[in-house]
Specification:
15% strand
Length: 395
């Protein structure tokens, strides 16, 4: 038996279908809505196995399926299902696990719209109750478990403050209590963290971030075992019409070819930026698991294989006018809500979080007005540091 190929090789090569693709080095886009059949018997057989048959592109499409197979293999999962957005993937995963009157334990620093899904939408529609925990203590999570707890929702590193959870310890506790686990692994990607190998049931990603990497597609994916993903395909994907278009699938396939190279550069540049910020007199604190000063750096090294380019820091001021001046003075760091693309971005979480969350939720997340999030892109890192330095001189 040959040795498994490395991630960079898996993502760069598409040679398994040379006969079908006539030797094309880049697989074609199957930009079609339906697939025709030679006989009654052929289409009848396809309907017997819709999840693996090309019938209608709201279901399976060859371009999209090729990406799904690569992502499943990359994450050490049995199967993956692409969605048209990260939130579609998160929603599908949650709906797959939850039933009316269920209880959820979730990380309090989770992605804002995912928080809204649980606290507002599902609470009203399905009477879902959510208990938020820091995720730092196994005892805290154990104490939160109820008879109707169906799900523990993780995000490691978490949004805004980049705190970690001990994934293996939590999934072990969950399995002992018959509870499913979902993790948002967008920050680390399956290159730097493989939660499925640590016992997580479902792994979700926003493909708009590092997996896409070029800020030109929106997408999401759920990865897990074959049974769960087959169920999600037939229910939360097919019935709700959450199809991924062939063009988006092809663009994502393009992006995956350079994922390992891009992440290497993101990590190298982000660490330099984080070190610079940590030693600046106008910065109170830097949140980046790659720093040795991070309170959970040892846990990060234990369960991660690397660090990406998203981090946050706290200015030692809280005057909103000065914070605005700092942000508006930046030239290379553009103001934008997303991250993980080739370009460097800056965002102040208070702008949207105070609109999405109550003041109490905002405070409980441990975020202040002076917290700033940056996505370190692929520009020259010395230029990025100079841009930050110029802006810091204004406050």
């Amino acid at each position: 038996m040959s040795k498994p190929i490395k991630p960079a090789t898996l993502l760069a090569h598409d040679q398994n279908n040379n006969d079908v693709y006539h030797g094309a080095v880049v697989p074609p886009i199957f930009q079609n809505s339906l697939f025709t059949f030679e006989s009654w018997e052929a289409i009848d057989a396809a309907f017997e196995n819709r999840a693996e048959s090309y019938i209608y592109s709201r279901g399976k499409n060859p371009t999209v399926q090729l990406v799904e197979e690569k992502l499943a293999q990359l994450a050490c999962g049995e199967k993956a299902q692409l969605f048209p957005s990260g939130m579609a993937a998160i929603t599908a995963a949650c709906l797959h696990v939850l039933t009316p009157n269920s209880h959820v334990i979730a990380i309090k620093n989770m992605y804002g719209p995912a928080n809204n899904l649980l606290v507002n939408y599902l609470a009203k529609k399905m009477n879902i109750e959510t208990t938020f925990v820091s995720g730092n203590s196994l005892d805290e999570i154990n104490s939160a478990i109820k008879k109707n707890t169906k799900l523990i929702y993780l995000e490691s590193p978490s949004s805004a403050v980049f705190s970690l959870q001990d994934i293996t310890a939590i999934t072990t506790l969950a399995k002992q209590n018959g509870i499913k686990t979902i993790i948002d692994n967008t920050w680390a990607t399956p290159i730097f963290q493989k939660p499925l190998t640590m016992g997580v049931d479902l792994e979700v990603h926003s493909c708009s971030k590092y997996l896409g990497g070029h800020s030109d597609i929106i997408g999401g994916v759920v990865i897990g075992n074959e049974r769960d993903i087959q169920s999600i395909f037939h229910n939360e994907y097919e019935l709700l019409g959450s199809k991924t278009a062939p063009m988006e699938g092809w663009l994502l396939l393009r992006s995956l070819r350079t994922l390992t190279v891009r992440l290497k550069q993101h990590q190298e540049s982000a660490l330099k930026v984080a070190n610079y910020l940590e030693n600046h007199e106008k910065i109170a604190h830097v949140n980046y698991p790659g720093l040795e000063s991070h309170s959970q750096h040892d846990l990060a090294k234990k369960q991660m294989q690397g660090f990406t380019g998203l981090l946050s820091f706290q200015l030692n001021i809280t005057q909103i006018d000065k914070i605005k001046t700092f942000v508006n003075t930046l030239n290379l760091f553009q103001i934008g809500v997303s991250w993980g693309g080739h370009e460097s971005l800056i965002y102040v979480p208070a702008i949207s979080y105070l609109k999405e969350l109550s003041q109490e939720q905002f405070t409980n997340m441990g975020i202040s007005l002076g917290d700033v999030r940056i996505s370190v892109g692929l520009e020259n890192v010395d230029d990025l540091i100079e841009d930050l330095n110029t802006a810091l001189l204004t406050i």
